[in-house]
Amino acid sequence: MPKDAPVNTGAAPEPASMGPRRRVSEMQAKLHRWAVADPGRRFDDLFNLVHDPATLIVAFDRVAGNQGARTAGVDGLSVADVEERIGVPGFLDDLRGQLKAGTFRPLPVREKKIPKPGGSGKVRRLGIPVVADRVVQAALKLVLEPLFEADFKPVSYGFRPNRRAQDAVAEIHFFGTCGYRWVLDADIQACFDEIEHAALMDRVRERIKDKRVLALVKAFLRAGVLTELGELQDSHTGTPQGGVISPLLANIALAVLDEHLQRGWEPGGVMSTQGRRRRRRDRGLPNWRVVRYADDFVVLVHGTEQDTEVLREEVAQVLRPIGLRLSPAKTRVVHMSEGFDFLGFHIQWRRKRGTSKWHVYTFVAQRPLRSLKTKIRALTHKTSQQDLGYVLTRLNMFMHGWANYFRHAVAKNTFGMLDNFTWWRLIRMLRERHHWTWSDVRRRFVTASGQWRPITAGEIELRKISAIPVTRYRYRSTAIPNPWNLQQA
């Protein structure tokens, strides 16, 4: 489930501070402005920006602030080790010297297999680069992202600045309300593992002319993988999940799908105006809209089931040249009245209770709900001897993070159910730990007026997620702010 979705403030990003951040922000704004002004321009002499001291400082700060900073690559060094043993200035000076001299070579990524959510038994392969490689990848991303963001279509939401999963769900909700009720619920098979390097590099060359930058991107793609068994494997396809630049490269590759399906919506296209879309429907022709979040996407169709099946074959043909294919088992054509899951939400067109009116509703899907319950059970086993304060802190952290992600769905009853589920799990644990009877529980948690006290440990209190307001997410359409345009303004 995506985790980059804070509350919907719609606010501009924080202004960059003086120093390296300010310098990098101004550099990015210029690159983005030039890329927007000339869609066919290929940029040269970017390598100096990659190894610029300011770029490397900002890149290191981003790597150090990432959750994976404590994880070491094949060299055994974490970010903390680099800061304590080498020192950041010396580390960055040495890295810059290697880049300028052309002696920098990425090391193989360390493979880590983690179970996929949902209890399917399948695993996801992560690639953990060494700290030096992460910093260079972050520097590359700082330079390349503003250029390619000028070309990305507005239907793509994953791992892009100022965009979040709720924007993608809101777009599905909007078009579903407008009659787009047949859905191609697509799943790309092993997307990050099977992207063709040659096809990806061709896409990168459409914007980048600097051979040193191209060589650096190619070197990261072919760095190899050190498996959990200690075997070194070559990387012939794919961009390993876990790399700083991997999401950007995946978006560059998958932009071919956005461009193909969005072509009719471009100015002058067959679906570019409401009148043209209406005339197509009058002639029995379908309209469609793709909504993509990284490698998860759906195609909404205002037409028939047969029209959606035709689009399914069309999508498969578009993905084939970049080495990708749809999963036969997970890709399906479904009517919105049946409902489908996307990014942890269950989206369904259904009749409003007590009326004859039909609306598109967004609920919490079953898989993230089961996953959260599994976490709660693991933390509140009745024989657990963990400190109650630690248990309450952990519960508050992941339950409120989960609830803030789903607070724009029809989730009020779900939040209340989870509060009740968690409370009973904790009471069961405390009764077992302290050998309490039910009378003991009531004596400790019920006031003289008959009100139940919250479960506490010192100053730490179990906070109810049902207190989080459930609100409708504001569909931002094309009004999503671009960080570099904001800086120019």
TrEMBL record:
GO terms for molecular function: RNA-directed DNA polymerase activity. Keywords: Nucleotidyltransferase, RNA-directed DNA polymerase, Transferase. Pfam families: GIIM, RVT_1. Residues 95-347 form the Reverse transcriptase domain. SUPFAM superfamilies: DNA/RNA polymerases. Residues 1-25 are annotated as: Disordered. This is Group II intron reverse transcriptase/maturase. It comes from Dactylosporangium salmoneum.
